[in-house]
Amino acid sequence: MRFSALTLLRSAFNGQTAYPQQWRKAEPRQCYDIVIIGGGGHGLATAYYLAKEHGITNVAVVEKGWIGGGNTGRNTTIIRSNYLFDESAALYDHALQLWRNLSQDLNYNVMFSPRGVLMLAHTVHDIQSIKRHVHANRLNGIDNHWLSRQQVAEFCPGLNMSRDARYPIVGAALQRSGGTARHDAVAWGYARAASARGVDIIENCMVTGIRRGADGAVTGVETSRGFIGAGKIGVVTAGRSSQVMAMADVRLPIESYPLQALVSEPTKPVLDCVVMSNTVHGYVSQSDKGELVIGAGSDAYAGYGQAGSAHVTAQAVEAVCELFPQFARMRMLRNWGGIVDLTPDRSPIIGATPVPGLYANCGWGTGGFKATPGSGHVFAHILATGKPHPIAAPFSLDRFVSGRLINEAAAAAVAH
Ligand SMILES: Cc1cc2nc3c(=O)[nH]c(=O)nc-3n(C[C@H](O)[C@H](O)[C@H](O)COP(=O)(O)OP(=O)(O)OC[C@H]3O[C@@H](n4cnc5c(N)ncnc54)[C@H](O)[C@@H]3O)c2cc1C
């Protein structure tokens, strides 16, 4: 069924009851050309582009829980492409271009909202660093603009512009084309569109082993629902990537940390852009439901506890109240954590591994939601052709041997 205004109107006459199951609940088959481990946004997007761009539909996405139950459904949904280095700028902007028409492409409303992302400067060093980003971005054709203190106050009237603040706001970078999207809808939209093209989406199916043949190449995956044969395997399991890769004796340069977020009670529209501050160490936006969505930092030590440490949450709330003192009267509804996969240079790993037929897409850490469409698109390319997509080539695993790192550690508003 195609969603459209006409469908909505037609369905109004039968109580909007005519909507079929959005994707098939597939049973595992004996063998697939490609098995993707991990039913988050990146895994599902990979499956969709394999089918759409390369005509490969004998594909299964194997998910241990429910699709989107990992970081895809736990993140604060900030989308932007204002990264410093040319390689990252190309990758994240590739994704941003795909976000623009994603709802139309998937025929599913992912609620992409390019409302503008403001990155605040509070010190002379912030000004220098942020302007460096602005100039680098503009050389790469990415929209990012420097705003004076006065322009910041006009663009985001709720901000605390007092000169008596601990860190007074002295300017900001604004990427107008950045914004937010609805995270669940991204997983659901890709699942629905991939399933419609013949991909099997297998939920409640945990991969417990990776089987290899005498030549060392992969032959399939052991799962909680039996063995599934595979010509190629793509591992897209975020915070669990090092554990899954260890099943094939591949050691990844990845550490997993809990990263937290929280939301307030809903309120009327008070904030119509995304505000980030590296210096006070927090960021905030307002969801369409009216909740303030607040991003906290990652824990200081590695772990798999999805709750995260309490003092990290407290620090995030303090930071946001420093930027918007009026929010101090709001109650927080809930907080949660996700396990993020951090590489030493805080850039992702996309490509082949030393094991024939085994491919990795991970290391997105605290910032991979924004990349979802681009990541799936370039990962599908290497799975289908065996050759890296030009945009993904710099993100190969061997950069940790060659030393050609892409250090984006300063790219986020919260330390990671
Ligand atoms: C609190 C928080 C805030 C964030 N905010 C932002 C943000 O504002 N902007 C941004 O761009 N990014 C953000 N991120 C990062 C972003 O969420 C991730 O980089 C991105 O969602 C990763 O997507 P994914 O599909 O790779 O991983 P996931 O969505 O985690 O999917 C991986 C899937 O693999 C499955 N899996 C794991 N092991 C197995 C197994 N053995 N067998 C089968 N399945 C398995 C998991 O169940 C999971 O569903 C945030 C993350 C968190 C936690």
From TrEMBL:
One of its GO terms (biological process) is tetrahydrofolate metabolic process. It comes from the Bacteria. One of its GO terms (molecular function) is sarcosine oxidase activity. It is an enzyme of class 1 (oxidoreductase). Keywords: Cytoplasm, FAD, Flavoprotein, FMN, Nucleotide-binding, Oxidoreductase. It catalyses: sarcosine + (6S)-5,6,7,8-tetrahydrofolate + O2 = (6R)-5,10-methylene-5,6,7,8-tetrahydrofolate + glycine + H2O2; sarcosine + O2 + H2O = formaldehyde + glycine + H2O2. Its EC number is 1.5.3.24. Residues 34-78 form the Rhodanese domain. It is found in: Cytoplasm. Its cofactor is FMN; FAD. GO terms for cellular component: cytoplasm. Belongs to the SoxB family. This is Sarcosine oxidase subunit beta. The lineage of its organism: Bacteria, Pseudomonadati, Pseudomonadota, Alphaproteobacteria, Sphingomonadales.
